[in-house]
């Protein structure tokens, strides 16, 4: 029998959160065991961010060719080889894979076990016949596609984010259940690559974002021919003649829609099954492992990061949390997670970014003092790029502090980086006004929105009188 492993740290799950934790801890010379049961890189690399952004990028090229006429360039309708597009997606994963590989982590000094991990008691984990007794554990086991209890779904073939990227023939009519970020990103990409696409959303589309901004994204999808049906709850699925037949409830009598392919994207379920959390004394619920602001579970040796920790489900959040838990684990320092500065971006065209509260959220919390807007149409670079549809909104708290910001438009994800710094560092409109933004860049819209705050000052009689008085002195 192999000897018991007794590392300082055992990380369970080799996705975004787990790999960041393991690599950073190993860099400090700490003994680390990493356990991964599936593909290294987890959801983000294999079934999530990376393949979805690669597919979106292919769709963007199609759109650019179709729009080339606006620049005086004449090209025909692009010919799309769907299987070759999937080769491109596979190629992007392959290019990133070495960073997340077993070989790389072993070269960093991490002991990697490729097996299913399960707690056997509060201090011990078993995986692939090995026993691990670590001083601390970081659980980063992620989430899986939620399969809703829709009648007939289990008996009908359907896709999730774990299978859709393997599909090599172009869907004739893709019906997407769920109008969250997965559904909307996948809908636009498939439409651009030549499929008919219908999205069925039981509530409202992209409901976590500002409706004033999402309206611009949804308008674009409709213009491109995506059928968007909100308040259309899917209640049943059967096998139709050419694929799944979907029944929706829209308030009136039920309606049916025929698809060639069905993609289910209705949220995520935490990967708690088989993890032995009860044996470990780790409390959990339907959202995942229950953690405090220090990301520690009810078992003081066990921390949780990423999707399993029950908070916002993004790779950058998993990475941020990985950075946080290392402080108590390595340096015995206290730590407190912040959520008010976490950004997210939906990679549609136009992109949609948000950091901190939306206007409605700030209002509901009683924190809203002002909202500043600046349209893309008033930005010279947006004009040169002919991408003038878009808007930035700065949500202000007391004394001109930027507590939230949303942006929709070309490269909104990149602009969200700057806004994330502004909100995270608790900056004010004065900071945005005073920094020098290179011309002509799209990011200038942040600065221009900030100047709106000062417009009323130019109208104040006192200020005008003072300027007039000073002018007399030459
Ligand atoms: C289609 C899609 C697109 C997305 N796009 C974006 C995006 O653009 N930007 C963004 O920020 N986020 C995006 N996300 C979300 C992002 O992928 C997740 O938030 C992120 O992967 C979470 O990281 P994690 O470490 O918590 O989990 P994961 O990356 O999923 O890693 C968990 C790992 O744990 C392993 N595991 C599970 N149970 C066990 C066990 N018992 N023993 C051993 N190993 C186990 C799994 O095999 C997996 O590899 C997207 C998600 C999807 C589905
Ligand atoms: N760009 C990004 O950062 C990005 C991209 C994709 C996914 N993600 C992450 O993955 C998570 C999961 O995304 P998601 O889109 O699957 O989930 P989601 O929870 O954001 O959206 C699911 C949608 O499905 C709808 N729905 C549920 N049951 C339904 C039914 N029976 N009929 C019709 N509609 C129904 C819900 O009303 C909801 O709007 C996101 O929350 C996000 O954290 C991030």
UniProtKB/TrEMBL annotation:
Residues reported in the UniProt entry to bind FAD: 53, 307
Gene3D superfamilies named in the record: 3.30.390.30, FAD/NAD(P)-binding domain
Transmembrane helix as UniProt keyword: no
Recorded GO MF terms: flavin adenine dinucleotide binding; NAD(P)H dehydrogenase (quinone) activity; oxidoreductase activity, acting on a sulfur group of donors, NAD(P) as acceptor
Cofactor binding description: Binds 1 FAD per subunit.
SUPFAM superfamilies found in the cross-reference section: FAD/NAD(P)-binding domain, FAD/NAD-linked reductases, dimerisation (C-terminal) domain
Cofactor: FAD
SS bonds (residue pairs): 44-49
Domain named FAD/NAD(P)-binding: residues: 8-322
Sequence intervals crossing the membrane: none
Amino acids binding NAD(+): 178-185, 201, 267
Keyword ATP-binding set for record: no
Keywords: Disulfide bond, FAD, Flavoprotein, NAD, NADP, Nucleotide-binding, Oxidoreductase, Redox-active center
Pyridine nucleotide-disulphide oxidoreductase dimerisation domain residues: 343-449
Family classification: Belongs to the class-I pyridine nucleotide-disulfide oxidoreductase family.
Full protein name: Dihydrolipoamide dehydrogenase
Origin organism lineage: Bacteria, Pseudomonadati, Pseudomonadota, Alphaproteobacteria, Hyphomicrobiales
């Amino acid at each position: 029998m192999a000897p018991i492993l007794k590392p300082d740290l055992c990380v369970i799950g080799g996705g975004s959160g787990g790999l960041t934790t393991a690599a950073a801890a190993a860099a400090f010379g700490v003994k680390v065991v990493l356990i991964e049961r599936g593909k290294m890189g987890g959801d983000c690399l294999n079934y999530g961010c990376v393949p979805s952004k690669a597919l979106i990028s292919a769709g963007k090229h199609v759109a650019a060719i179709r729009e080339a006429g606006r620049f005086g360039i004449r090209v025909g309708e692009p010919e799309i080889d769907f299987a070759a597009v999937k080769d491109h997606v596979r190629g992007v994963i392959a290019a990133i894979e070495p960073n997340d590989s077993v070989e790389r982590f072993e070269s960093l000094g991490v002991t990697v076990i490729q097996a299913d991990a399960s707690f056997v008691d509060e201090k011990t984990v078993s995986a692939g016949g090995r026993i691990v007794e670590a001083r601390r554990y970081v659980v980063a086991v992620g989430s899986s596609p939620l399969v809703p209890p829709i009648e007939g779904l289990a008996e009908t073939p359907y896709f999730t984010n774990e299978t859709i990227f393997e599909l090599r023939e172009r869907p004739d009519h893709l019906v997407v259940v769920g109008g969250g970020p997965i559904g909307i990103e996948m809908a636009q990409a498939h439409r651009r690559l030549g499929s008919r696409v219908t999205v069925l959303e039981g509530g409202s589309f992209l409901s976590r974002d500002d409706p004033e901004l999402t309206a611009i994204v949804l308008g674009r999808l409709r213009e491109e021919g995506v059928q968007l049906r909100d308040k259309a709850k899917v209640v049943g699925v059967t096998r139709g003649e050419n694929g799944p037949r979907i029944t929706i409830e829209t308030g009136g009598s039920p309606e049916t829609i025929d698809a060639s392919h069905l993609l289910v994207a209705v949220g995520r379920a935490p990967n708690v099954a088989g993890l032995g959390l009860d044996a470990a004394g780790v409390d959990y619920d339907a959202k995942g492992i229950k953690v405090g602001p220090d990301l520690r579970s009810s078992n003081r040796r066990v921390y949780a990061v990423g999707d399993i920790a029950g908070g916002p489900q993004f790779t950058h959040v998993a990475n941020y949390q990985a950075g946080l838990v290392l402080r108590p684990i390595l340096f015995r320092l206290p730590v407190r997670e912040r959520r008010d500065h976490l950004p997210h971006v939906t990679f549609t065209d136009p992109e949609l970014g948000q950091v901190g509260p939306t206007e409605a959220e700030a209002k509901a919390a009683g924190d809203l003092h002002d909202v500043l807007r600046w349209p893309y149409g008033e930005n010279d670079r947006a004009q040169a790029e002919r991408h003038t549809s878009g808007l930035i909104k700065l949500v202000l708290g007391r004394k001109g502090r930027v507590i939230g910001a949303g942006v929709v438009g070309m490269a909104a994800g990149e602009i969200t980086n700057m806004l994330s710094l502004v909100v995270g560092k608790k900056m004010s409109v004065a900071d945005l006004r005073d920094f020098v933004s290179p011309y002509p860049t799209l990011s200038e819209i942040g600065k221009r929105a900030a100047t709106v705050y000062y417009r009323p000052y130019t109208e104040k009689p006192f200020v005008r009188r003072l300027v007039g008085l000073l002018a007399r002195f030459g």
